[in-house]
Amino acid sequence: xxxxxxxxxxxxxxxxxRLRSSPxxxxxxxxxxxxxxxxxxxHPMSWTADHVDPISLGGAERDIRLLRPAHMRCNSRRxxxxxxxxxxxxxxxxx
Length: 95
Known about the structure:
This protein is of the alpha+beta class. Helix content is 20%, strand content 11%. It is built from two helices and two strands, in the order H-E-E-H. It starts with 9 loop residues before the first helix and ends in a 17-residue tail after the last helix. Pfam families: HNH.
């Protein structure tokens, strides 16, 4: 059986669950608005873990200190840019 690579598997899931259940994980670090954790995973405003330093640019994948809660939409718009903390991401939806 082949081993899975990347974020698949239990180690990533454990880190993801720890971040999701931590205090303050219901506010998007990019836009500062609340995140509804009951939304389905594919919903644009659902909860996701954002890598402070994108993996594609050498960021650590499973280090919980380098993950932040974010809306899927905000995380997607940020892409693989770094240095976004404290600066809201522009979204097409008016808050």
